[in-house]
Amino acid sequence: MNQRLRDYLQKCTPAAVDETILDDLRQEMEDAVPEIAESIREREELAAELRIAASKPSQSRKHNQD
Hints:
Blueprint: H1 3-11, H2 19-55, H3 59-65
């Protein structure tokens, strides 16, 4: 970490935070992360399918080459 930033943070007093807010936020994150991971997995799968489909010659190109 940058030394100037570290010095600044050392001078700051910690803010008081309600623990229930942190617990709620933690729970929301735990719920959201699996959904985000699944969405990424689905997009990667779709991208792979599109790459495979793009690499295969289409029927019309095959027909024209014959």
